[in-house]
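Hi P.,

Sorry for the delay on this. The queue was packed all week, but I finally got your sequence through. Input first:
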Amino acid sequence: MIKRLLDRPVPATILVVVLLLTTTWAVTYSPRSILVFLMFQGSVLLLYFARMPPPLKAGLTILTLGVLMPYLGAINAYYMEIAIQVGIFAALALGLNIVVGLAGLLDLGYVAFFAVGAYSWAIFGSPQANLIFGGQHFPLGPWWFFVFLLVGVAVTATAGILLGLPVLRLHGDYLALVTLGFGEVIRVLASRTAPRASPRSTARRSSLPPCSRPSASTRIRT
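Then the structure:
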């Protein structure tokens, strides 16, 4: 029955809009209920499968992900954290599908490019940058996070160009070895960037100090 509704544009639109509004209202008044949040995610999934005019579907998608999801994240930050993690891994999977699936390139160090972009903000958004560049000018303010969204893209693209130029003619196992080595280099650099556990210790922590987060008012109703 639901499949028949989703195949008809008008009933599918009404069903998706009603479910989105209902589940959003439910999450607003029951912010700690995981079941209710899963119902909201289910309505987003129905939006994906619903057969409706492309402009209307695109508008509902932008409204859902750009307005409703941040609104629910302001009520319970855990939901926004989950949505961000899902988006990160979805972008990783889509990019890997383009490189390996469509281009046919065996890239074993693909995730290293994600690390390059992430560490661009992790270093400057934490006190660790003071140890690298000296002084006491870091961490940068939380609003710099939005600037580093673009900086991270630029740094990652530059790393991709610098890696791609020497290995453009490599294919198969040779390309896999080069990209695997690149991933290992990034891993070693990241581990060496982490601060020492203590001033006299040679061991290093497994991560950088906490980074500055963009300011946003988060509240959880009880």
